[in-house]
Design brief:
2 copies of one chain form a homodimer. Helices cover 34% and strands 25% of the residues of chain A. By secondary structure, chain A is α+β, with helices and mostly antiparallel strands. Chain A has 2 domains: 120 residues, 60s Ribosomal Protein L30, Chain: A (2-Layer Sandwich); 169 residues, PurM-like C-terminal domain (Phosphoribosyl-aminoimidazole Synthetase, Chain A, domain 2, Alpha-Beta Complex). In chain A, strand 1 and strand 2 form a beta hairpin. Chain A is globular, with a radius of gyration of 20 Å. Chains A and B meet through helix 1, strand 3, strand 4, helix 3 and strand 5 of A and helix 1, strand 3, strand 4, helix 3 and strand 5 of B.
């Protein structure tokens, strides 16, 4: 096409998005927030409409040699619902487009939809449309989700203030370590197809990888406690990457504490077994689909006893940087080493 | 996965959609219309929100050896806008997800987005989000579109009544015949790369294939003439297939007249040159993205002099069938031979 050639790997995913965003002009005054948050925000009169989309490609986002089709269907809905949760919204409708090669039978597609329908039920969303086509290459799944939020209740990435408490839900790193287990089992199977997979002791972390849960429960609890986060994002690319989004878009720095980071024992033990640093898995492992958010200190008491919300640090002025304080009280600058699907 | 194996080609695209739709349960009372029309219809209080999505896969929907990237970007938006037009709505926002292999440079992606942004400007929609990822195989483009419609002004496929006039916009068959020209030029080029493409005399039909226009102009004109169609669909799979959707969902039959079918002279001449029956191209060629709709006879006078709306037949009771009356006054039953992406 062009004489110049700039490789996409030079820019990375976020660089590409930034570059492409520059050419976009907003023409409709109902388009309140476009690219740059977990979902677009559209003014629908008495409420806001939220819109987000995620595409899953075989060989990039999933490997059918160890991902069962019902789990894949479930995950394709959950990751989209998670984007609506991260805006403090409620998901309502999804469209599901699927590109299929002829190696898929009707029964296989029905298995995929079994998971899609189970997730739709769990997250109370309706499958209202989509597109079904053949694919010359692998399986392609593209889901878009519509949600709603009350006006003034939507939460962006850019609203954090200095001294806000940084909260993370659930535990982190499990989905990444679970993926390592699945990859090892695949290699073992390829080397010796007689071997049965040994997944029993890794059940929790494998489940975290295969069937992530969008944290709508947390969104409902925050509402019932009358706690509105000042900023929020879902943890799809790893804690470090997401924290850098919140601090960057809020023009702040942050300190998080190693001893406060939530990690499950199975994640920790398995990381060590694989020769991985557990804290690196927490910081840079992706696909946990937990929520990272900030709250004003006035809400401290309401959440401090919550079993599944962890205070991991605080926001600070930008000049103090974005740092991890280790157990040895060393200050380590946090850099993004999360997923980069273009590398 | 399963012991039974039913091939997707046995069901076809519409059979698969019908089968998958059976497992879907609607839980939100704002989901007014799900699968089965050009877009989903969602109750947004004082208005309706419309949602539709289309996926384009390299090697299935486009061939980059003759489709320029800006045209492809334009088309990916236009085909989605066309779905909103077919509901009598106005498109407002789109999300664009792109799966890219590393053979694409930044410059190539910018060329794609040049077309996306041009279409966004032409159809007054905002690009508010998307997903950018690598692809191990070809280029994947998935677009979702949000639109709005006034309550009671939305038009479904199932609202036609007997004796309604059947209207088609523009001309038909051109995109299909244009595709034949592009395919022939590709073969000529592969046989002899020194040959320059000979496209001058096919300019109109090639343009119709490469850069379809969604007929929002017709939607605005119908509104200004106070004509609300009783049923409507966009012609993406061919006139015959779309007419069968309108008649089937409205529980009616129809007669259309061969001598009323709109065909451009270049389409006609080129079809003959390729040994194709021009009427078959009109009936079964896809991708024109014109509108097919029905109106009550009371609106006859308002539209009869419109240069770009053609009265091609009328609806009738289901027992009379769906027929073409030829110039020789033969009655031929219309069957769907449109695109079936799963065959």
């Amino acid at each position: 096409m062009a004489e110049d050639r700039t490789e996409l790997s030079e820019l990375g995913e976020f660089g590409l998005i930034e570059r492409l965003s520059q050419g976009i002009v907003v023409q409709n005054d109902t388009s309140k927030m476009g690219i740059g948050d977990d979902a677009a925000v559209i003014d629908s009169g008495d409420h806001l409409t939220l819109l987000s989309t995620d595409m899953l490609l075989e060989g990039v986002h999933f490997d059918l040699s160890y991902v069962p089709l019902p789990h894949l269907g479930y995950k394709s809905i959950a990751v989209n619902v998670s984007d609506i949760a991260a805006m403090n919204g409620t998901p309502k409708q999804v469209t599901v487009s699927v590109g299929l090669s002829n190696r898929f039978s009707l029964e296989a597609i029905e298995a995929l939809y079994q998971g899609i329908n189970a997730a739709a039920k769990d997250f109370k969303v309706d499958v209202v449309g989509g597109d079904t086509t053949s694919s010359n290459s692998g399986l392609v799944i593209s889901v878009s989700v519509l949600g709603t939020a009350e006006k003034e209740k939507e939460v962006y990435r850019n609203g954090a203030k200095a001294n806000d408490i940084i909260c993370a839900t659930g535990d982190l790193g499990a989905a990444f370590v679970g993926l390592q287990v699945l990859e090892r089992e695949k290699q073992t199977f390829l080397a010796n197809p007689e071997m049965q997979p040994q997944l029993d002791k890794y059940q929790y972390i494998v489940q975290r990888q295969l069937k992530p849960i969008a944290r709508m429960d947390i969104i409902h609890e925050l509402a019932s406690l009358d706690v509105q986060p000042t900023s929020m994002i879902d943890i799809s690319d790893g804690l470090a990457s997401e924290l850098l989004h919140l601090t960057g878009q809020s023009s702040l720095g942050a300190t998080i504490y190693e001893d406060k980071l939530p990690i499950d024992k199975q994640t920790y033990d398995t990381a060590v077994e694989f020769g991985l640093d557990p804290i690196t898995c927490v910081l840079n492992g992706g696909e946990d689909y937990e929520l990272l958010f900030t709250i004003d200190q006035e809400h401290h008491a309401k959440l401090e006893k919550h079993p599944d919300i962890h205070f991991i640090g605080h926001m600070q002025s930008a000049d103090k940087g974005v740092n991890l304080l280790t157990k040895q009280e060393n200050v380590v600058a946090i850099t993004a080493q999360g997923w980069n699907h273009l590398k």
